Amino acid sequence: MISRSLSFLLSLSAIITIGDACSQDDNTKILPPSLANINDDNIQFFKDTKYNNVTTTASMLQHNSIRKVDEHGSTFSRRRNHQKRSNLLRKGNQKSINLPTIAGIVKKQPRFNTLEAALTSVQLLDVFRGSDSGPFTLFAPNNAAFDKLGDILDDLLGQNTLAYILQYHIVDGIVLAEDLRDGPIDSFFGGIINVDVKRNGVTLNGDVNIIKTDIRASNGVIHIIDSVLVPLTVVDVAIQSGFTSLVAAIDKAGLRDALNGPGPFTIFAPTNSAFQTLGPLENLSGSDLEPVLLYHVIDGLVTENDLFEGHVETLQGDDIHIDFKNQTGWEAKEYVQIYGGQSSAKVKQTDIFASNGVIHVIDNVLLP
Predict the structure, then answer these.
(1) Which of 37, 75, 226, 235 has the most CB atoms within 10 Å of its CB?
(2) Regarding the domain delimited by 234-362, which CATH topology (the fold level of the hierarchy) does it fall under?
């Protein structure tokens, strides 16, 4: 069974409303479920290593001595290679000693006043001061990006939750605009940032725009973004996407904290209508639901490009079988069918990314 842990990345979807559970006005800014119960004693920055004060974290990052998250270790043989491409960090060890540091740029440019205050409050600005630190890529929210958070930012100043959020904006190595590719990349402390390269620009996590690229520094590069990155967990994304039956089952089985953990997880998420085949959820116990739900979860990040025909082990312990089918008719196309136990499901949608994994939508509940 999954080891239970509280949220690995603070999911500050401070600007969203969580389904029908909220009675606030549309303009009310709230925190998502995965931010609940975060405190100095239970923050987990990544994997199995705990730090519970921002001073230690900043110091270790500054000296590059924190163990970075390893490759996600998918049980599939075809592992994702977006950030592992040789050209992505090809300039990672080159430093321009005649340029200001990232910290110097942040302090000098008025558009980063709020970012400077936020980094200073959690003692992370010093991370970017020395030319011998890094190199890093910083996705830097401008003042207008922080303004979207409203009063919540004032409450977070100096808190470990803010440190979490800011660390999510840091990538190891120098990643220039020309190096960005579609797909997930890892932030320095773990967590997935999804990159979408379009004709008119680059977006991160679906709705955060890069508005200026390649501000070079002696210890890295800065890209300016128009919103604070929101590292939602797979549970947060399921809530936001309307998977009410799945979330209710997760809660009844007591798996929310585990799935808010580091991961990464790949979840084959049945639709609400698919859950109707099980009958009313209130008639099922948590012990009934737990093995069924874990049968839909794979340890590791498996994107659409990573899928291949064959067997893969789930967190329930049994295998599911993935098969590529050809749809007949006037619009012939390939689709993915999953077989498990005496059940099967068709993949309806792929690659709904979260900070700790990815969701693929299926049209039936798999029964081990």
Answers:
(1) 235
(2) FAS1 domain (2.30.180)
